Amino acid sequence: MTRRSNGKTAARIAALLKGTAAVLVAVFVAPAAAPPRSYAVTSTPLVRTGLDVFLENPPEIVRGKRVGLITNPSGVDEQLRSTADLLAADHDIRLVALFGPEHGVRGDQSAGAPVRNSVDAETGLPVLSLYGATRKPTPAMLKGVDVLVFDIQDVGARFYTYMSTLAYAMQAAAAQGIPVVVLDRPDPLSGDLVAGPVLESKWTSFFGLYPMPILYGMTIGELARFFNGEFGIGAKLTVVPMDGWRRSMWFDQTGLPWVMTSPGIPHFRTAVLYPVTGPIGDTNLSVGVLTTEPFELTGGTFIQPWRLRAALEARKPGGVAFRAAYWRGEPWTDTGGPEYGGVEIRVTDRAAYRPVDLMIQILYTVHQLYPGQFHWGASSGGTYTFDLDMGTDQVRLSLAAGKTPEQIEEQWVPGLERFLKIREKYLLYH
After folding, report:
1. How far apart are the C-alpha atoms of 239 and 430, rounded to whole Å?
2. Which CATH number fits domain 268-392: 3.30.565.10, 1.10.3980.10, 3.90.1150.140, 3.40.50.20?
């Protein structure tokens, strides 16, 4: 199968997206935008997040109520003030507890490190862990909470764990009859990118709970509606929508400040490449974590950068350029970590950029060039983390069998077509 057939696949998905009619439905109606004001950090953004809309006119469901807040450092207003601090100082509500996802409320925990119950030093409120002994709020944790509020910036990739935290929180709140309020934020990769294999039920994990593709093109508020409506959660859900966001917008077109969503995603450009290199980092390849360009690099100790660059350029993946590069990685010693060779990836044309295709192209190329040195990383009981990222083992097995990226991606089309039809009724923005 040639690259032309891959373009046909992309065209089919693009046609479906173009024909998708966004439905503007929300429980909470945003008030009209306030007159222009001056801000300490940036000029007035084009988009106001659900948090900014919420603060201007808190919905009746939270007024005077005891509120539990699930947030992290990405929960900020347009002046970079923390959601936790703002709600703690808001006299219209009573913030009584904070809930910490992976990396913690204040972002002080590394990837995979358990978050412990504690007391927040800034507000004096209890912090209850959602990334330790449990990842779902227990009845005891929700005791004394009247409303659960969620405010975290997503990165738009299914295997990023915060959306599983959202789903678990909605399940727990529904079981206790506690309303959930989601303060909406943009999908940083726009609301138009939908790609990758749809998760199979066998591969359900914290990297993906529900059948959806790697890139779903939905905001967190739209995802909450999708989870609630399609999977029988039945939460009393209020989504506070953004004001001014359009589906075509990438994050840097909103005027909003980017705050690292986790220690490994410091910049918006990191989030743009994370769907490509996140799963690659779960093989034996390095993706530059702990360098100044995390997730913008990919390579290995056995790779010649010029060779990988030439092979990738010959495959002509859309919208990107490659630079041959070297970097150091873990484990660190007095003389530095092991030296990796590979490529730095730069997005040059967003209209042509296809993140999931690029990931498959890179893995296919490395597997072809270095079959005896590339492997799929650690497994637990025969389960590879890479398969959990993909939501299926078919990508790994197909690459190992020598199937081309075009052949692999063609297999995803029926699942994507079904997902797009379901997704349509939960969209809030045009």
Report:
1. 16
2. 3.90.1150.140
CATH 3.90.1150.140-classified regions of the chain: 268-392
CB 377 within 8 A of CB 385: yes
Fold observed for domain 12-258+421-426: Rossmann fold (3.40.50)
The pTM assigned to this predicted structure is 0.89
Enclosing H/E stretch for 95: strand 94-100
3-class SS letters over 48-111: ECHHHHHHHCCCHHHCCCEEEEEECCCCECCCCCEHHHHHHCCCCCEEEEEEECCCCCCCCCCC
| pLDDT tens-digit map of 125-170 | 999 999 999 999 999 999 999 999 999 999 999 999 999 999 999 9
**What is the C-alpha separation between 141 and 137, in angstroms, rounded?**
6
- Cα separation of 232 and 78, whole Å? 35
Residue 44: φ, ψ to 5°: -60, 120
Residue type, 183: L
> CATH 3.40.50.12170: which residues of the chain?
12-258+421-426
Side-chain-facing half-sphere of 221: CA atoms under 13 Å: 25
Place of tokens 């890139």: 215
Assign 28 to helix, strand or coil: coil
Nearest to 389 by CA among 266, 262, 231, 206: 206
Report which of 254, 183, 185, 181 is spatially closest to residue 219, judged by C-alpha positions.
Answer: 185
The answer to whether 210 and 167 are in contact (CB under 8 A) is yes
pLDDT single digits (tens) 220-240:
999 999 999 999 999 999 999
Report helix, strand or coil for 292: coil
User: Within 10 Å of residue 177's Cβ, how many Cβ atoms?
Assistant: 9
Residues 6+ apart with CB under 8 A from 294: 264, 265, 266, 270, 287, 288
For the record, the structure tokens of 58 come out as 């808190």
Query: What's the CA gap between 224 and 115, in Å, rounded?
Result: 24
Confidence at 113, pLDDT banded by 50, 70, 90: confident
